[in-house]
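Colleagues,

For the teaching module next term, I've prepared a clean inverse folding example: a structure given as tokens, and then the sequence designed for it. I'd like students to try predicting residues themselves before seeing the answer, so please don't circulate the second half yet.
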């Protein structure tokens, strides 16, 4: 499994929820029984996402990749279908609430930026796209919260 989230959304719990939901979908709708990820060993945030999503650390893959011309270690994480079943039914309400609050706050800031008449068109377009993405993410979280 691989994933990326824009820096604007780091630390909001969004990726943990997304990883859990993706694994749940895969396990419920396919015959796949193992999902693995190999984050860079130095990427502590990505490793934490996997741990919070129920993945187990399996080891270090020494000098497994080249990044910016340098050999770097990677970590191996995996989740097995039977490992995910009890955890998936209980996505922490507090994580969803925190993600929801953070996204809502960011949405309000973006909408305030859009109120400016002096906003360059390129920045306006980018901000409008962010607003659309934030609204989608908020809808998904609200759906998850019931």
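(Answer key — instructors only)
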């Amino acid at each position: 499994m691989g994933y990326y989230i824009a820096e604007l959304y780091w630390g909001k719990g969004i990726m943990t929820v997304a990883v859990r939901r993706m694994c749940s979908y895969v396990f419920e709708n396919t015959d796949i029984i193992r999902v693995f990820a190999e984050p860079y060993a130095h990427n502590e945030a990505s490793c934490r996402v996997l741990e919070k999503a129920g993945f187990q650390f399996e080891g270090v893959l020494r000098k497994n990749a080249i990044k910016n011309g340098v050999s770097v270690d990677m970590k191996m994480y995996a989740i097995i279908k039977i490992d995910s079943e009890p955890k998936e039914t209980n996505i922490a309400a507090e994580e969803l609430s925190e993600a929801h609050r953070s996204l809502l706050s960011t949405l309000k800031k973006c909408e305030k930026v859009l109120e400016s008449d002096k906003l360059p068109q390129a920045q306006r377009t980018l901000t409008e796209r962010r607003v659309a993405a934030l609204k989608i993410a908020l809808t998904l979280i609200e759906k998850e919260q019931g």
